[in-house]
Write a structure and sequence with these properties.
The chain has helices spanning 15-33, 46-52, 58-66, 89-99, 123-126, 166-182, 197-210, 223-232, 244-256, 301-313, 318-333, 352-365, and strands spanning 5-11, 38-41, 69-74, 104-110, 130-136, 144-152, 155-161, 186-191, 217-222, 239-242, 265-272, 278-284. The chain is an alpha/beta fold. The strands form two sheets. Strands 2-1-3-12-11-4-5-10-8-9 form a ten-stranded mixed beta sheet, sandwiched between helices. Strands 6-7 form a two-stranded antiparallel sheet. Helix 1 (15-33) links the parallel strand 1 (5-11) and strand 2. The longest helix has 19 residues, at 15-33. Bound molecules: nicotinamide-adenine-dinucleotide.
Length: 367
């Protein structure tokens, strides 16, 4: 059987810096765990624009469609602000998401004990937190028609349309139930069925799909109440599934319960391919951080944890993903910190490379 394949798109700004640390970890898995990946690398975002005049070359798009998983660093930067909208770096990322039809966006909110003090909430509310928000990514109010700004009598009216088909709801619900089966077997679906017809349909379809997953305990919550509950006692949740708009807000809210942007991974999954693996793009939540790019200050953990998600969700290597997450946890518990994780007490931050090396040493120690 051939090795699993991975396309790496480092992108712009700190993207290549954090990705270099992930490359070391990928090599470690090959050398020490016999888990060898066929890795190819290509350009995306501003880097692709500089080379080809487009933020994603067709050849790169074709490679992304052919591999088992894509791992992306970050795109964008002030240099590209003047470009036409159609060739801005972000368009490369949007094209990947659209053409790979990545409808299920996984945003974990996990609080490492060593960083519990970083949350704006009380330590006991967030310590040990481990929840997953599944956001529908390709439909809903950001895409529904009609949309636009129209003239109505003497004034303008802005219109966006919340629209969901049963099949769109069912496929993201299944992806959330599948996840719940691999985790704590609890799923909470959030919508606004009290005031939106699309919410009523959402609740109906999720309930129908739940019959395929009798082991998963399903609950429903209005999204506004969900926001309150997430800040009051987030540990009551395991997996949350919600639409594109509510998911946009709730996933950011949940993520920031846990501290720094430099720590947050994500996955976007599509339909299963012939080999049974879902189409998949893994990326840190953060952007290209031009303010610290090229200074060796970036925290590589968000990108490293994105690779851990790839191990778990694309390559069925749950125990190896857990090994990598434990290595990150150990390094943090030992007090190793990049600048973004320094508390008010100060201390000496490590560089991007030193953080990567510390995680490699923790991986070695795990053998
Ligand atoms: P950003 O996430 O790049 O940075 C926000 C702040 O967080 C900055 O102060 C930055 O230094 C810090 N930060 C981010 N990641 C960090 C890390 N790994 N380690 C340490 N500190 C980190 O967001 P922004 O400044 O709003 O955007 C900068 C550029 O990135 C823009 O061009 C924007 O369009 C783009 N962007 C890209 C993505 C993506 O590629 N998915 C996401 C968001 C923003």
């Amino acid at each position: 059987m051939s090795n699993p394949s991975l396309l790496i798109l480092p992108g712009d700004g700190i993207g290549p810096e954090v990705m270099a640390e992930v490359r070391k970890i990928i090599d470690w898995y090959g050398a020490k765990r016999g888990l060898v990946f066929d890795v190819s690398e290509d350009l995306v975002g501003g880097a692709a624009y500089d080379a080809h005049g487009t933020p994603l070359h067709d050849d790169t798009m074709a490679k992304a469609q052919a591999v088992d998983a894509v791992l992306l660093g970050a795109v964008g930067g002030p240099k590209y602000d003047v470009l036409d909208f159609s060739v801005k770096p972000e368009r490369g990322l949007l094209r990947l998401r659209k053409e790979m039809d990545l409808f299920s966006n996984l945003r974990p909110a996990q609080c490492f004990d060593a960083l519990a003090d970083f949350s704006s909430l009380k330590k006991d509310v967030v310590a040990g937190l481990d929840i997953m928000i599944v956001r529908e990514l390709t439909s809903g109010v950001y895409f529904g028609e009609p949309r636009g700004i129209f003239k109505e009598g003497n004034e303008r009216v802005g219109i966006n349309t919340q629209r969901y088909t049963e099949s769109e709801i069912a496929r993201v619900a299944r992806s959330a139930f599948d996840l719940a089966m691999k985790r704590g077997k609890k799923l909470c679906s959030m919508e606004k069925a009290n005031v939106m017809e699309s919410g009523i349909l959402w609740r109906d379809v999720v309930t129908e799909v739940s019959r395929e997953y009798p082991e998963v305990e399903l609950s429903h919550m209005y999204a506004d109440a969900g926001a309150m509950q997430l800040t009051r006692w987030p540990k009551q949740f395991d997996v949350i599934v919600t639409d594109n708009l509510f998911g946009d807000l709730l996933s950011d809210l949940a993520a920031m319960l846990t501290g720094s942007l430099g720590m947050l991974p994500s996955a976007s999954l599509g339909a299963p391919m012939e080999n049974g693996r879902p189409k998949a793009l893994y990326e840190p939540v953060h952007g290209s951080a031009p303010d610290i790019a090229g200074q060796g200050k970036a925290n590589p953990i968000a990108c490293i944890l994105s690779f851990a998600m790839a191990l778990r969700y694309s390559f069925d290597q749950g125990p190896e993903a857990a090994r990598l997450e434990s290595a990150v946890e150990k390094v943090l518990a030992d007090g190793v910190r990049t600048a973004d994780l320094m508390g008010p007490d100060g201390g000496v931050p490590v560089s991007t490379t030193e953080m990567g090396d510390a995680i490699l040493a923790a991986l070695d120690a795990s053998l």
